[in-house]
Amino acid sequence: MDDGRGGFGLNHAELQRMTEERTRDAEVLLAGGRWAFAYYVAGYAVECALKACLLKRMVLTGWVFERERETGR
Fold first, then answer.
1. Which site from 12, 20, 28, 62 is most exposed, i.e. has the minimal number of CB atoms within 10 Å?
2. 3-class secondary structure per residue, the chain
3. Rg (alpha carbons) of the chain, rounded to whole number
4. pLDDT tens digits for 16-69?
């Protein structure tokens, strides 16, 4: 999801959804004996979950806006 600034703007809900999807993908891969890729996808699920937690914390504490206050942007 392009945010119009050359990056991708994901919100907390989208990251949570991605976490759940990747977790299900990893479970299916494990059940099918595709161990290496299942661990890779599980790691991606963990990455999405951590980003969701960090993003929620940043928004709740206002930390995400500190740089803009300091630089005047």
1. 62
2. CECCCCCECCCHHHHHHHHHHHHHHHHHHHHCCCHHHHHHHHHHHHHHHHHHHHHHHHHHHCHHHHHHHHHCC
3. 16
4. 999 999 999 999 999 999 999 999 999 999 999 999 998 888 777 776 566 655
Which two tokens mark 50? Answer: 């951590």
1 near 14, Cβ under 8 Å?
A: yes
Contact residues for 38 (Cβ-Cβ < 8 A; gap 6+): 26, 27, 29, 30
Q: Alpha-carbon distance 28 to 22, whole Å? A: 10
Amino acid 3: pLDDT? 46
Cβ proximity of 38 and 29 under 8 Å: yes
**Rounded CA gap, 21 and 32, in Å?**
17
